[in-house]
Amino acid sequence: MTAEMFPKEKTIDLRKKHIGPSCKVFFSHDPIKIVRAKGQYMYDENGVRYLDCINNVAHVGHSHPMVVKAGAEQMELLNTNSRFLHDNLVQYAQRLQATLPEKLSVCYFVNSGSEANDLALRLAWEYTGHKDVITLDNAYHGHVSSLINISPYKFHQLANAEQSKSVHVALSPDLYRGNYRQDHPDPATAYADDVNNLIQKAHEKGHKVAAFIAESLQSCGGQVIPPAGYFQKVAQHVHQAGGLFIADEVQVGFGRVGTHFWAFQLQGEDFVPDIVTMGKPIGNGHPMSCVVTTREVAEAFKNSGMEYFNTFGGNPVSCAIGLAVLDVIEKEDLQGNALRVGGYLMRLLEQQKEKHPLVGDIRGRGLFVGAELVRDRVKLTPATAEAQDIIYKLKEQHILLSADGPHRNVLKFKPPMCFSEEDADMVVEKIDQILTVEVEIQKSEPF
Amino acid sequence: MTAEMFPKEKTIDLRKKHIGPSCKVFFSHDPIKIVRAKGQYMYDENGVRYLDCINNVAHVGHSHPMVVKAGAEQMELLNTNSRFLHDNLVQYAQRLQATLPEKLSVCYFVNSGSEANDLALRLAWEYTGHKDVITLDNAYHGHVSSLINISPYKFHQLANAEQSKSVHVALSPDLYRGNYRQDHPDPATAYADDVNNLIQKAHEKGHKVAAFIAESLQSCGGQVIPPAGYFQKVAQHVHQAGGLFIADEVQVGFGRVGTHFWAFQLQGEDFVPDIVTMGKPIGNGHPMSCVVTTREVAEAFKNSGMEYFNTFGGNPVSCAIGLAVLDVIEKEDLQGNALRVGGYLMRLLEQQKEKHPLVGDIRGRGLFVGAELVRDRVKLTPATAEAQDIIYKLKEQHILLSADGPHRNVLKFKPPMCFSEEDADMVVEKIDQILTVEVEIQKSEPF
């Protein structure tokens, strides 16, 4: 099947001419043109099928017919702003709320994870009257200017990075490569104490902390799974300082972690954030997103006197699509699938770790899995070039995977939630083949 | 036709429970529930038809079949991010570029006017290395935190508003109510000199100006039409200070002004902004938006070393919808319609001005028209309550109009572009009836 308008070379030329050069393509040496997709598969202009291990946005599967139908039917009927009453808006808010702890009851609908996290900051600033924000090292929270400020993953890239004086970077609670590791008696407390130290230092300078923000599991930061109890301890310190806890679920929410609908719930029922932000998977690719908070925070924000209006946020089409995504997750038991297939994938990858010294660590929850590659299992020297090489070789075999983390050495699995055990078999088998050759290269030409 | 799931009272209750209380509804005393819309008409749950004079987002008409079809077909095929090559993206960029002066050739696709204006600031900061921004009084540029800072329309609402030291507010170039009016010999120079004064004051404090930002015609600021030549003179001052000129076309672009496709073009062919931001009408309600700039600015942004990635921005569905909107504007000559019907509407309103002392000023271009209501034509006392009253009375007669501007006394027409002369007749006739009674009230009970 061909569904292209221009030959690939022309597409590349026009892209160079008219699209901002800061907007990168995957596999820049030989980018892929995708013309259609279904489930966990994408197809290029020549009909070649790629197994998609990376598009967590296409949460319930690319072009899911129930989602497409819901969107198309509502577009035909009405698409307007939320200053008019509409049942889709309130029904959707009600359905989202039902997945969350009871006190998280008030929604704001926006268009992207960036808009959601920026609004979360505005809510925290207004509620607390404080200004400072504590963020994790290697965190990424979005592309608008307020979020670049709290995203070390981004601002470390800048030549002349000047860190805002009201932003404090806490240690990433990484048990593999971080300051406190698997062998530490109580890493949750140790990492939470680091947050508390930052709070105390901020206080010494006369600053006050509005919020601690973290992805419930760090994604770009390297598929980091914080130790159990960490969020509770951090929340205690932050609340004591009058600040709020913002859980960023943009990458990891909506059942991906398998055992729970939200990744922050992995920390236990006794933990409830003050603000939760949602994004990417929420609309299966449709531009939409949401912030949920408590009645108290919402009322404080209202009392500032400023209306909040978002032109597209919460429109009937976005809400119809959001409802359809929730329906499909339930109907197809995709959370259960994430648990089963994610577990299966982890076991396969653990076998790779036993077989190939390059595979240093396997970690994940459900269909959010990372395989960290190292040249040396003691020094943990990041195998960055090797990770890139694997990604490119997999692409040649029509499998889409990416490498991320501060050293770009973590193979990152976050496929559509309909990913199957056969898909897991296929990708791990190919990785095994590549690593087997790779190991030979390493033996003859050590790095 | 009824297409509701809940009785209206239940919708209102759920909204109170689950939607942020800062998110206002139209006609809060008796909000409207809209269940479908077509062209310039919206329908409530009882099938009552409303004439829509306000939804500039539904640019080519609510639920336009060509736009719906383009969106639905592309959703069925593929919706993914712009790290994959896709022809819709480059074709759409090419088509947009063709509407603009040649040097505005590089696009960034984002999801909302707010994301667009925030990115415009990031581009200006990076290109110039400067920090300060000059904005117009009463301006509104979006809801993310960086834009609240440059939106006096918003930050004036705050009880404890603290204006950022790097933001300077210039006089709104309002020839009716501003510092320099119709009777001034050269208001363009006078208003531009005010901008220059702000630049000089910033320099005295050791600050440097990154950008001047203005809507090409101020919308929330009160439907203000800047005098011819104003932008050229401002651009000269700003460029001399090493800053950039950002034209915000989020409300007024895409042919609405009738004579031109972009409202900044009203200033003459010798004026070209450095950055143009687009939004609302671009996707007929679909969440999408764009920033266009020069090659030089784009390269400087790239050279910062930071990738720009926007998860949903420029996805194939958004681009298909954007292309369809451009097609419909052309095919149905909606720009021509805006010119013809807008002119007709202006003439009808001018007659109202002659007839009713409350109507102080009629101003506009194409289907972007304001009628400013005053209690006294010399003192220009804003007729705020009267404007609200008219809006509510029109609503009772099933016509949707709004009042805006710093005094909320400007009746604001920005209907879908398929608005007809009959529609104009209908709304002005109703306004005439209301004003006739109003005037009687005024005679018996003067304000």
UniProtKB/TrEMBL annotation, chains A, B:
Q: Which UniProt keywords apply?
A: Lyase, Mitochondrion, Pyridoxal phosphate
What is the required cofactor set for this protein? pyridoxal 5'-phosphate
Where's it mainly located? mitochondrion
Question: What does the record give under GO molecular function?
Answer: ethanolamine-phosphate phospho-lyase activity; pyridoxal phosphate binding; transaminase activity
One Pfam assignment: Aminotran_3
Which major enzyme category is it? lyase
Residue ranges crossing the lipid bilayer per the database entry: none
Q: Which domain of life is it from?
A: Eukaryota
Subcellular localization, per the record?
Mitochondrion
Q: Which PANTHER family match?
A: ETHANOLAMINE-PHOSPHATE PHOSPHO-LYASE, PTHR45688
Cited function: Catalyzes the pyridoxal-phosphate-dependent breakdown of phosphoethanolamine, converting it to ammonia, inorganic phosphate and acetaldehyde.
Provide the assembly information: Homotetramer.
Q: Report the family membership.
A: Belongs to the class-III pyridoxal-phosphate-dependent aminotransferase family.
What name does UniProt use for this protein?
Answer: Ethanolamine-phosphate phospho-lyase
Q: Which organism is it from?
A: Oncorhynchus mykiss (Rainbow trout)
